[in-house]
Write a structure and sequence with these properties.
Elements: H1 2-20, H2 25-28, E1 31-39, E2 44-52, E3 55-60, E4 65-74, E5 78-87, E6 97-104, E7 107-113, E8 120-129, H3 150-157
Antiparallel strand pairs: 1-2, 1-8, 2-3, 3-4, 4-5, 5-6, 6-7, 7-8
Length: about 160
């Protein structure tokens, strides 16, 4: 009986240690993410999101604007940011909300909302980039299709 109790205690301890070492979604999403977004008017544009500890950057290379992001909320599988554009302010809407949802390994769903009315205006998918990109070449913007799952899109509204 003592052996079973001892084995049970060991297994419980190992499970607790493993749980304590799980990364937060912010830690899991550290790195550089690139892709395309599709706006509600069907225009497409490139996105680059850089997430480092205490430093969050957003760039829209094809729109010539970008800046920093302020982390507003961290959920179990998503991050909510407020964008603060520092360049190209005349080209882009400032102070929008960006929601990143971890979807699968090396992929995140991107959602962009207007600050004033909370209306969703763009969706996309971003891929994690490495120093030399996903195919052994320098990073390039990954293409994404605008295949949006309405249920998943509706769920993102709850992350705000």
């Amino acid at each position: 009986m003592k052996k079973f109790f001892l084995i049970g205690c060991c297994l419980f301890s190992i499970a607790c240690l493993a749980e304590g070492q799980q990364k937060t979604v912010l830690q899991q999403l550290e790195g550089i993410w690139t892709g395309l977004a599709v706006q509600d008017n069907n225009s497409r544009w490139a996105i680059k999101v850089t997430i480092h500890p205490e430093s969050y950057l957003i760039d829209y290379p094809s729109l010539n604007c970008g800046g920093t992001m302020e982390l507003v909320k961290e959920n179990e599988d998503s991050l909510v940011f407020k964008e603060i554009l520092t360049y190209g302010i005349d080209s882009c809407y400032n102070n929008g909300k960006t929601v990143l949802i971890k979807s699968k390994d090396n992929k995140v769903r991107y959602y962009w909302y207007f600050e004033n009315n909370g209306k969703k205006a763009a969706v996309g998918e971003l891929s994690r980039q490495t120093e030399y990109g996903n195919r052994g070449q320098k990073s390039q913007f990954a293409c994404c299709e605008s295949s949006s799952d309405e249920n998943q899109d509706a769920d993102t509204d709850n992350n705000l």
